[in-house]
Design a protein that fits this description.
13 helices, 435 residues, 11-stranded mixed beta sheet
Length: 435
């Protein structure tokens, strides 16, 4: 085997030139700088420069900030009119955009809870989704809210209910029918010991305030049993058209389950799972007079063991809703579709760096999570656009597949006729992307 070397400047990431071009044409750089303002005079890079450099790390296969120094600088410096900054500059930008963490003390237990509420970056997250057309004013969307545990042993991280140190941010996302990926619209930092139900009504009030400011309307809301609280239901009634919440088992519900007549149950199938479903149209939780609809499902246990409360061999689950028109099956199908929000956490953790938080404190890491949520939304935008123009991309492609299929193409910038021309060493036709 013979080897020859060449000093020609050829980049292995030629496809990123198109991504950067889309970023500039989207109007996001101007939006970022107008919304966040100018950096100090000592800062040689604007916030839009920092966002572009930070995003470049993930779109070129990196997974930590230092990759821009160690692995990507030579390739990125070949892009005309693109100023490459250092990892330290990116981290300084992340810290500049952080806000102070707020302390809440539970009066009943005395336990302190740390929340990081970054209103400015959350506003930018929503504005950027609207700017790229992912969200439109006045349209009624389906919104999911959930908290996710991010294991990490940072300086201020606390032990979670999973018995590991980490954070537990609250994330709201919109399940958009036109896109395969849920769109994160709100991120609130919480330390690991602050479970999802603690002060959730306050979190949701702040979230709905941000959505209202951008004229984003929420038609239907889904969440797990952490939202099964009287204060949360009042908040949802004020800001949504309907909600669907996983109801907690309680003595009142257990007494009802055993008294439901057999003919009230309807058999349905969801995928490979057979179950039975019924509903109670006048269920009053929390010992109050306000009544809701409770849709109940039951699945026969494979081990045949009888439930200690209901007395039969079924696993029961219930969904509380204020909507009375859809069939029981439709309600169950809609609620089970909230798996899209669970997949979003997989994307954020593995494609956009949430599993490798770069900073030592909750405040800076919340800033990082909001910035990378913007990159995730931008990726949803471009994969939707590009897949309509070339048949070798699909709107469901994850970032890694996109990098292999689109970004990693050998390319060289050449100057001819007083113009910079990108020469691609591939048989794939990239020209439709520019149309």
């Amino acid at each position: 085997m013979k080897i020859t070397n060449s000093t020609e400047k050829i980049t292995p990431f030629g496809g990123f030139n198109f991504v950067l071009n889309s970023f500039k044409n989207s109007g996001l750089p101007k939006l970022i700088d107008n919304h966040l303002g100018a950096r100090s005079l000592r800062g040689g890079f604007s916030y839009s420069n920092i966002f572009a450099n930070h995003m470049a790390i993930f779109f070129n296969g990196g997974d930590c900030t230092e990759d821009i120094n160690v692995h990507l600088r030579d390739a990125l410096e070949q892009v005309p009119s693109f100023s490459v900054c250092s990892a330290d500059t990116i981290l300084r930008g992340i810290k500049e955009l952080a806000v102070d963490t707020e302390l809440f003390i539970n009066p009943s237990s005395g336990v302190s809870h740390e929340f990081n509420i970054n209103g400015k970056l959350n506003s930018l997250l929503l504005k950027s989704a609207c700017k790229t057309g992912l969200l439109k004013s006045g349209v009624a969307y389906d919104l999911d809210y959930d908290n996710t545990v991010i294991p990490t042993e940072k300086y201020d991280s606390k032990k979670t209910y999973k018995h590991v140190y980490g954070y537990q941010p609250g994330v709201a996302s919109i399940a958009h029918p036109e896109f395969s990926q849920a769109i994160p619209v709100y991120v609130e930092g919480r330390n690991g010991n602050s479970q999802a139900k603690y002060l959730q009504a306050d979190t949701l009030t702040r979230m709905f305030g941000q959505l209202t400011n951008e004229n984003i309307r929420i038609g239907r809301f889904r969440a797990d049993s952490a939202s099964y609280q009287e204060e949360v239901l009042r908040t949802l009634e004020a800001h949504t058209e309907s909600f669907y919440i996983r109801a907690n088992r309680c003595a009142k519900l257990d007494n009802i389950l055993g008294s439901i007549a057999p003919e009230k149950w309807q058999k349905i199938r969801l995928g490979v799972q057979e179950m039975e479903v019924t509903d109670l149209s006048d269920y009053k939780p929390f010992g109050k007079d306000r009544s809701y609809r409770l849709v109940i499902t039951r699945i026969r246990r494979k081990d045949g063991q009888a439930d200690v409360f209901s007395g039969d061999a079924f696993t029961y689950r219930a969904i509380l809703t204020n909507e009375h028109t859809s069939s029981n099956e439709a309600v169950v199908r809609f609620y089970n579709a909230r798996g899209a929000s669970e997949r979003l956490f997989d994307v954020l953790n593995n494609d956009f760096g949430w599993s490798k938080l770069p900073c030592s404190f909750l405040a800076e890491n919340t800033s990082f999570m909001l910035m990378t949520a913007m990159y995730a939304n931008f990726y949803t935008y471009i994969i939707g656009e590009y897949s309509r123009k070339v048949d070798w991309l699909k709107p469901t492609d994850r970032l890694k597949k996109f990098i292999f299929r689109f970004i990693t193409v050998s390319a060289k910038w050449i100057r001819t006729g007083r113009r910079e021309v990108l020469k691609l060493f591939t048989s794939k036709d990239y020209k439709p992307i520019l149309n």
